[in-house]
User: Fold this.
Amino acid sequence: MSSGPIVPALRMFCDDATKLIKSTIGDSLNAKLIGTLYAGGVEKVGMDRYLERTHKLGQKLAV
Assistant:
């Protein structure tokens, strides 16, 4: 899992890093990618719009 706060103006750098992580996760960490989620603007729009998706990703982790 990778997380961290980022201002919207710098999101393009996160998008580039996400592509890099996704392309190397299996080889570098011997890990399996189960999904991704970008939860932007939580401080403005709240978390409710992301809860269902985060719950589903958590269920995949628990299996």
Observations:
- The chain has one domain: 8-62.
